[in-house]
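Quick sanity check, Imidazole glycerol phosphate synthase subunit HisH:
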Amino acid sequence: MVRATDDGRTGTTSLRVGVVDSGLCNLGSVMHAVRCLGAEPVRLEGPAGIAACDKLLLPGVGTFGQGMENLGRRGFVGPLEEAVLGRGTAILGICLGMQLFASLGTEKGTFPGLGWIPGRVERLRTDLRLPHMGWNEVRFRAETPLRQEAIDGADFYFVHSYAFGCDDPGHMAATTVYGAAFASVVRRDNIHGVQFHPEKSHRAGLHLLHRFLYADRDSVDVGSGPVVEQVLTNALSDDRKVHGPRRLPGP
């Protein structure tokens, strides 16, 4: 249960959020964002501890093949499948982490993915400069626990050259345009993915992470009411606040 304290911050009785360490990114910003929102981040350097987590985050940067290789070498694939597909634990993939949910990736070869959301990860089809790096608008097109009025149409921070092409358009929860439209949010049941970096996207990113953490729990207000706004203001103004990149000019 999430509850508000007198200063508007949230407390939680037991929300443990496992952050999968695939060895492909710095987890500090992600873990700090989770902590700012009142949950307990647990760094998972191996599969031990997955079963004790209420929610899972799979961040990642780099290439698809390396991401899958690292997950396999560290023993994550089977235990993650047991948690996500077997027990229904909610997971949020971030950037490369989202792409690994696909059936296969085509970056520097063809590699099988986790296959949790049928589709292919292919190079962005655009005449604009790659990588797509900077702030861009995210428009939701389907209902998802991550969706709320406060962030629909907001800008989020992207760094990528490949995009997730869903076999089933119903799994494409939000789109972004960079020369052409691509899936910036995907969802299948308890499996959620975002192509952007919410931990680097300031207020909009914290809103989205807050939705992922608490939308299915007994809470004071997981939408955009005053309690959440105060929590986000506190998180952003804290001396140890989450720092995102400054707004960058377009390509």
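Posting the structure with no commentary besides this: The chain has a mean pLDDT of 86.
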